[in-house]
């Protein structure tokens, strides 16, 4: 007797007609036909069943603060930073917790059950850290929340930032963060990378740095981060987020840089929505896209995962906690429209991001945690195109959210009465695998 069986599922790897049997909080069986009963059954009706979405780069302390204390009129990164600096002294633990919990409610309905959030440690009150530690505990039954100690105004640049980051880590923050390109000089930025990697090595913690979030091709802190990763033996435990300066670097330098990043096992976390919005602001035309070299990094074997970064905050007035919106943008900006390309994009929202966060028990195999989502789509390609409803969200074997199927009602004589957009994908016999 199973507690739950999800029947007739399509899996991201292309398997179809699959049953998933769940006992307690674990997946107990995955096969074409499970000849057993269950306390509850869900018929996926040939829809896509995926492990939950994972966001490896977010700012939960700022989310849903749009308009406080004013709007970002220019829409630029620097005005967003200045605006956050105005808001920060007024933050209260209660307001931070309330906004973060509301965001987590939204995330669950979108099938987003794993989030890594950077937490600003610039204010010596560390009210942001206190609030997000409280949120991490409150949401633990339904969201795994990792926290990054993030010296947003610079580890060396902001007064008291060094001591505040140490206190945040002592309080239980999970990951060491940084922002070397925001230090006063390139030398200070490189020194901050060395210092922060040393702290991570001494404490046995991973590293996740905002790195080279600029159009300046001479912002090369990712090179230093890769070197220090190797020096301190942190291979596989370090993420470089944004890396937008790579879109402006010359190809020869990048041909040397990417292998170094691969040697260091750097996890790469672009943020397509925010990068395309904030970068290239000094350009007239031609105008740079703002996204790092996603295709080249993937082809070199680096682990690339996508972050949402911001939702309705000083930097980004849009967003909906939908990681498929992030992937949809990545398909366009990275010009990765081929069949195999789009499969890789979907992986960057799920399994790759799980690897970045070092999630244990993630996946759809026997023995994995019984965390999964049923989407109103047949496969990952269709999911990226439609950004469909999450028909069911399951956490540790329990259904924690449902959304009705999105069906259009048509009132035209001689035409169907109901329209389901997920029924419109053509069936392509022997689809090509060329990366175009």
UniProtKB/TrEMBL annotation:
GO MF term (any one): cytosine deaminase activity
Keywords, sorted A to Z: Hydrolase
Enzyme class, UniProt record, top EC level: hydrolase
Ranges for domain Amidohydrolase: 40-400
Protein EC: 3.5.4.1
Domain of life: Bacteria
InterPro entries for this protein: Amidohydro_3, Metal-dep_hydrolase_composite, Metal_Hydrolase, Metallo-hydrolase_Enzymes
PANTHER family associated with the record: CYTOSINE DEAMINASE
Name of the protein in question: Cytosine deaminase
Organism per entry: Sinorhizobium kostiense
